[in-house]
Structure formats: structure tokens, C-alpha cells
Amino acid sequence: MVTLLQPRPCLSLCVTGHRGTNQGFNANKPAVEATLAGLFEAIGLLVDTEAATLGPVAPVRLLSLLADGTDQMAMTIAQQRGWTLAAPLPFGRALNSAINARPATRADAEVLLQGALPQDPACAADAATLAGWYEAVELFELADRDSAIAGEYLAVVGAPANESRTHAFRASTSAQVALAGRVMIEQADLMIAVWDGESTDLVGGTGHTVACALDQGCAVLRIDPAAPERWHILHAPEALAASFRPGMFIEDRDATLSRIVRSALRPGEGGALHQGAAGLAREKWYARSSLLWHGYRRIEALFGGEKRPFRSLVNRYETPDAIATGSGAPLLAAARALPGGDPAIPDRIEREVLGRFAWTDGISARLSDAYRGGMTVSFVLSAFAIVGGIAYEPFADVNAKWMFACAELALLLGIVAITWLGSRRRWHKRWFETRRVAEYLRHAPIMLLLGAARPPGRWPKGTGTSWPEYYALHLLRAQGLPRVAMTQSYLRGVLETLLAPHVSGQRDYHVSKARRLHTVHHRLDKLSERLFLLAVLSVSTYLAFALASGLGYLPHEELHGAAKIFSFLGVMFPTFGAALAGIRYFGDFERFAGISEVTAGRLEAVDARIRLLQSAPDHLLTYAQVTELAHAADDIVVSEIESWQAVFGGKHFTVPV
């Protein structure tokens, strides 16, 4: 069995700011550098302090777009501290070098696009600096539009006075820079921005990137290059409208920075993962489901319209060691076949993600059986306890009542034992927690292969605990960005061999689930109604016999003999009807069917969009389009988890009364 070590917490920062050509930045460059160095020192100390309690913590991770000026200054300081460096480039490395080295001639631009150094010494020095950074960082290249943008770039270099060409080129590059900025923001707990606050309108510019970070729930530590020592922290987009009012920033900024670092490295409820992730690793593994706890699934089989409702319901759980050659084999094969892919990422997915998915999925399935099956059995036992307690009347005399009372007591004690066990072993909470982890990991491989992530500020909040989100976030962050150039062929592979099958498979699952649960709800409802009607019929029949006896049409002795039978039936029918109604209420089959219907509908909409994009020619396929679909599927996963929690969140393990 694989060893499921806890993911090491990792603080992730991103940096944006003015380029070296900005006058305000250049005028105060030493002070800006000193402020950045001081902040990085303070952040490093805060992380070390947390590590003293949490245990091993990964090195701080810093992301930037590697532009000259702020980006490279911050990366240099971080490199000296031994931090991990990552760079989502807006373009492939050759085009990125050509654009950022600013060649004066078309000939030099063409040389740069070929990956060589030009004749111009200053231009060559800038290109060489970038080449050095490319080797020092996790390099993630958005090269999907390089061919078109390179043509626009050469046209501009060759004719700089052509305004229409210049405008088209700037629009294309700004969109790519903004996209790379989004990739960076999705990975970060805090953005550090060296920004004069002048404008947020220029797409891809520093102000625009700051506004996007705040919109994604990422706090921004803003350094004004004119007064870098007076840095402050912004928490919401609305802060931009008031950021320059006198006295606006009166918070204890050091305490705020400490709180941001602490919350990034710890689950929301505080402390290390003693009750959460550590408990997950200690969970006992079972190869298959237990016959004792199949009650809920047996109800689904009996009332869900399935064939062979009395078939064996034993589930054999796929082990973490077997998933790579089992259900995960097609995914891994598709990931390894991606053109120009990073071979390390599929290996990490196999080693770190799929094994944990199998572990949490199997544990969650068994806990689900225990919790829902235990409650279902309790409802059934309560009905038998009531009916068994009065069964002596028609079938024995009062002297034998003690035997029926003993049976009733045994059934009631069984309910108490199940309730005690379920509460003590936290079946309800452990099921919720492990299921959340499993569902986050189910969709994660596609996001990892695309270098996409759910921003830390957009993770859902659990009911009473947040360690599953913390666990998944840090586990996925630890895999890093793929060292890959996002080309059209790579994107086509992800779209057709990974995203499309995943979305359509999940849609089909929810369609089937909704249909089955609607059937279960309807049939339970009808059976409960019929049992109630039988109770009414039995009582009415007894009253009719009593009337007939009173009128002399029926001997009184026969009515006395039938009274016990009718009393028994009058209790038995509504009791079992109420038990079925209780199971229906507890199971909430109709609402779960509704959740699956909504989820299936949303997945169908994404699947239709995927099919449209699949029909597009390669040159129109972009990273923005594919990741938008991946994020849409991820949002559906999270929404379904939140809806599911809203239904079962308050249904704790209790005595069925």
C-alpha cells in the first residue's frame, strides 16, 4: 500500500510591478529593492515560525512573468533566499525574449525568434538574462498564439509608425500577458505589487493585474515606488477606489501580513492536521464494503428500478497501488501521450494524486455505507421493535409477553448501539471530509496538466472544518506548474483525450443517478401511501365488523377474536409506512436527484461547448478557451459538493425518531 504522507504546506507569492523603463520605479529603485528584501525577510521569518508548530514546510514559492524591473528584482532576492521560482510566460520562450529584449531592427528580431543572440550588445544582454532565468525557474509557456503574434511582432518592428499594426500587436500581447497573470494569481496566496496606482485600465498592465488578483480573492501588498516604505495591503476590489484617501490604511500591516501567512499555511480551524489529514493517513483500509451496512444501497436497489435488486451489493475498492494500472490507466496514458508534455507531471499525478484519490474514495464509500446504511437499519429496526412489542396480542397470550418485550428491547438496544458507534466514530463528519477530498482530486489531473488552479480565495468553506480544502490545495500546489509550452497540439490532446471524456462521463453518471433516485423516491412514496391506506382499511374494517356485531349480524365472540388482529394491523401498517417515510426523508432522494439533474445539465452545457471547440481548426484553439472549459467543469464539481453538503450537512447520526 502506498504511503500517504501529508502534503507539506507551501506559501505561494506572486509579484507584479513596473518595468525598468518606468521613471518612478527607476527614480527610487534602491529603496524599492530594500523594501522587497525586508518584506521577503519578514515573510521568511513568519514561515519559519509556523514551521516550528506545523512541522516540515516547503520553501516559499514565488511566481512572476520575468519582465525586467520589478519581476526580475524580486526573483533575484527570492533566489538568494533559496525559494522556489516559477514563471508562467505570456509567450513561448523565443517570442518572449524577442518582445522583452526590444530589438531595434527586424533582423535582430528574427534572430531572437530563432533562439539566438542578436548583434546589438544591449539587446543581446537582455536576451541572455532572460535565457538564464529560463533555466532557473519552473517555466510554463503560453505558446498557443506564438505563430500569429510573431507575425504581428515582425510587422511592427519592420514598420513602427504603422498605428493599426501596432494597435493589433499591443492588443494581442496584452491579452496574453493578462492570461499569464491569471495563471500566476491562481497559484498565489498573496500578490506583491510595485505600483504607482495610476490606472487599472491597461489590460495586462500592473494595475489591471492587481485588480484581477483582488477580484479572485487574493490579497495584494502594494508598494508605491514613490514611497516604498509605506506599503499597505489591499483585500478587495473596492479598496482600489479608496486606496489614496488620507488615513485609509490604519490597520496594523505587520499583523495583517502575519495573519495572511498563517491562514495560508494552516487549515481554517487552526492547528496542524491532527484531526484531518493526519487522521486520513491513519484510516484503516478495507478491501471491500461490509454486508452490515448495505441498508441504504439495498433500498436503492429494491426501489430504484434496477435489474436483480437482490444481487450482491459488495463493493471491492480499488487500492492506491492498483489505480495506475486500473481505472487511472487511460488518464495516465493520455497524459503521457500529450505532444511536448512534461513527463514529470503524469508521474506526479500517478504517485501523488491518483493514489490519494483511490484512498479517499474507498474510505469515503465505506463511511457512506456505514453512516447512511446505519441510519437506514435503525429506521427498520425501530419499526420492527414497535410491531414486535405488540405482536404477542394476536399470536400469543399475555403470559408470553415477556418474550416479545425482550425482542423489542434487543432491537431498541441495537438502535442505541448503532447510534453510539456512528457518533463515536464520527461516520457523518468523516464521510463528508473524505468525500470532499476525493471529489477535488477526481478533476485535479486535468487542471494540473493545464497549469490551472482554483485560486485560494475561491475554495469553498466546509461546514465546521476546512482541512479537506487545505489538504487538496497544498497537495496540488506541490506538483508545480508543468514545464511545457502550451501549443495547439498539446491543447487539442488535453481537450479530446482528457477533458471531453471526463465531462461526458460525469454527465452520464449524474443522468443515471438522477433517474434512479427519482424512481426510489417515487416508489417509497407510493409504498408509504399504500401502507397508510391499508392501516385505514384495517381500522375501517374493524369498525364495520363492530357495527355488524352491534346490530346482531356478527357474533360478539368472533369480533373479540378479530379485534387483536385488527389492532395489530392498525399498528403494523402505519409503523412500517412511517419507517419508509423516515428513510425517504433521511435519504432525501428527491433533492439529491434534483442536484444530479442540475449538475448533469450544467455538464451537458460544458460538453456541448467542448464539442464545438473540438470542431475548430487548430490555429483557432487557444489556452484561454480550453482552460475556461476546465474551470467550468471544476466550478460544477465544487457547486455539486456545496449542494450535497447543504442537504446532508445537518443530518447527523441520531436515534430515528
Descriptive labels:
657 residues; mainly alpha; Rossmann fold; 2 domains; 7-stranded mixed sheet
Approximate shape: elongated
* Helix share, percent: 55-70%
Mean pLDDT: 89
Number of H/I helices: 23
Major β-sheet profile: 7 strands, mixed
Structural class: mainly alpha
Low-confidence stretches: 270-274
The fraction of residues in strands falls at: under 5%
What number of structural domains do the residues give?
A: 2
- What is the oligomeric state here? single chain
Q: How would you spell out the order of helices and strands?
A: EHHEHEHHHEHHEHEEHHHHHHHHHHHHHH
Give the terminus-to-terminus CA distance: 42 Å
Write down how many β-strands occur, each being a DSSP E stretch of 2 or more residues.
7
Please state how the strands of the largest beta sheet are arranged side by side: 4-3-2-1-5-6-7
Question: Mind telling me the C-alpha Rg?
Answer: 32 Å
Report on the architecture of this protein.
The chain is mainly alpha-helical and 657 residues long. The protein folds into two domains: 13-240, Rossmann fold (3-Layer(aba) Sandwich), CATH 3.40.50.450; 291-308 and 341-648, no CATH class. The chain contains 23 helices and seven strands. It has a seven-stranded mixed β-sheet with strand order 4-3-2-1-5-6-7, with helices on both faces. The chain is elongated and about 120 Å long.
